[in-house]
Amino acid sequence: MITLRPLRLLLGLMLLLSACHKPAATSETESPLTTIAFGSCNRQDLPQPLWDDILNNKPQLWVWLGDNIYGDSDDMNVLQKKYAVVQQQPEYQKLVATAKVVGTWDDHDYGRNDAGKEYRMKQKSADLFWNFVGEPANSPRRKQQGVYSAHTYGPKDRQVKVIMLDSRFNRDSLLRINKIYQVNQTGDVLGEEQWKWLENELRNSTAKVHIIGNGIQVLPEEHAFEKWANFPAARKRLLNLIASTKAQGVILLSGDRHIAEISRTNYPGISYPLYEVTSSGLTHTWTGTFVEEPNRYRVGPMIAKLNFGVLHFDWSGPQVKVDMQVKGDGNETYLREQIQF
């Protein structure tokens, strides 16, 4: 015979466990994500003509892909003042009022050109970055070794997960000889803590689409500038992780290059074409004689005009359709690729 007291305890425990497993309201009750806009290389002391065009696309989410300011200083007061210039830009204020903002950094907003884990001011700089993107003061992310983050949007059957990687805080050194970056065969980019976090975010995700953004390019291998290919072991580890976790609908985003391009590859173990959209820059691009550099993965031309990126999601059918675009002043479309998952 079961007495009332143990029965009440049993019922109470069941209710508690049920509450603990309740899905997060932010991912279950929101409308599906239909438009993301993104960009990089935003020099705060130059004209910023693209914010009105970005607003015209009505993005629900804005993604910073690095060099969000040109800080280039060990003085955190200097970085703070430069962030404030961007935050006080009227059109950017309109964007912040109408869209969520997430992102990551690259080297110039990190604090020093081409810097990696050796940069001594990185934790203080991270605090300024989190302030810039509106991370709450008590957020556990502020205690991480890096500014990586993951954000899930939309109801359960139409979710998009946006994963922002930090390719500076724990990145190994990279030697530069005669302006050419050398290959660090065994060097790491993310650090073990971030690798474990990323695997968990991919392996345990139910999202239909996964956007993975970071400051430097992942797929291109042939140009002489900063890229994941300078760390071939880390690049292979990233692509193998996408394959082994069977993450659905991965699209890579990157900045840094002062050009825009779309790259595509068919990677073993990934059941769909893997695209990378590079958008750079918002305020300045290549100067001097334009030469289209080699990139075996490029789809379409290389763009050396001010630009931003847009992803449109169409959830009307059994498969989600993603329209990837690179746009510029006057909302002109420079590049466009479409895929369905």
TrEMBL record:
GO terms for molecular function: alkaline phosphatase activity. It is an enzyme of class 3 (hydrolase). It holds the Pfam family PhoD. Its EC number is 3.1.3.1. Keywords: Hydrolase, Signal. The keyword Cell division does not apply. Residues 1-24 form the signal peptide. Residues 51-265 form the PhoD-like phosphatase metallophosphatase domain. InterPro entries: Metallo-depent_PP-like (IPR029052), PhoD-like_MPP (IPR018946), PhoD-like_sf (IPR038607). PANTHER family: CALCINEURIN-LIKE METALLO-PHOSPHOESTERASE SUPERFAMILY PROTEIN. This is Alkaline phosphatase D family protein. The lineage of its organism: Bacteria, Pseudomonadati, Bacteroidota, Cytophagia, Cytophagales.
